[in-house]
Amino acid sequence: MGAARTVAPLAVLLLQLLLHLMGAGAAEADDEAAALLAFKRASVANDPHGALAGWREANSTSASGSPCAWAGVSCADGRVRELNLSGMSLDGRLRLDALLALPALQSLDLRRNAFHGNLAAHHTAQPPRTPSLCALLQVDLSSNALNGTLPRAFLKSCAGMQSLNLSRNNLTGGGFPFPPSLSTLDMSRNMLSDAGLLNYSLTGCHGIQYLNLSSNQFTGGLPEFAQCSQVSILDLSGNLMSGTLPGRLLTTASANLTHLSIAGNNISGDISRYDFGGCTNLTVLDWSYNRLSGMGLPLTLDNCHRLETLDMSGNKLLSGTIPVFLGGFQQLKKLALAGNNFTGEIPDELSLLCGTLVELDLSSNQLTGGLPASFSKCRSLKLLDLGNNQLSGDFVVTVISKISSLRVLRLPFNNITGTNPLPTLAAECPLLEVIDLGSNLLDGEIMPNLCSSLPSLRKLILPNNYLNGTVPPSLSNCSNLESIDLSFNLLHGQIPPEVLFLPKLIDLVMWANNLSGEIPDKLCSNSTTLETLVISYNSFTGGIPPSITRCVNLIWVSLAANNLTGSVPSGFGNLQKLAILQLHKNSLSGPVPAEFGSCSNLIWLDLNSNNFSGTIPTQLAAQAGLITGGIVSGKQFAFLRNEAGNICPGAGVLFEFLDIRPERLAQFPTVHSCGSTRIYTGMTVYMFNKNGSMIFLDLSYNSLTGTIPASLGNMTYLNVLNLGHNDLTGAIPDAFTGLKLIGALDLSHNHLTGVIPAGFGSLNFLDDFDVSNNNLTGEIPTSGQIITFPASRFGNNSGLCGIPLNPCTHNASTGDSSQHSPNGQRKFLEEFVLLAVALLVLIMATLVVILYKLRRPCESKTEEIQTGYSDSLPSSTSISWKISGSREPLSINLAVFENPLRKLTYSHLHEATNGFSSEACIGTGGFGEVYKAKLKDGSVVAVKKLMYFTGQGDREFTAEMETIGKIKHRNLVPLLGYCKIGDERLLVYEYMKNGSLDVMLHEKAKIDVNLDWITRKKIAVGSARGLAFLHHSCVPHIIHRDMKSSNVLLDDNLDAYVSDFGMARLVNALDSHLTVSKLLGTPGYVAPEYFQSIICTTKGDVYSYGVVLLELLSGKKPIDPTEFGDSNLVDWAKQMVKEDRCNEIFDPILTDTKSCELELYQYLKIACQCLDDHPNRRPTMIQVMAMFKELQIDSDNNFLDGFSIDSANIEESSEKSV
Question: According to the annotation, is 1134 in a ligand binding site?
Answer without folding.
Answer: no
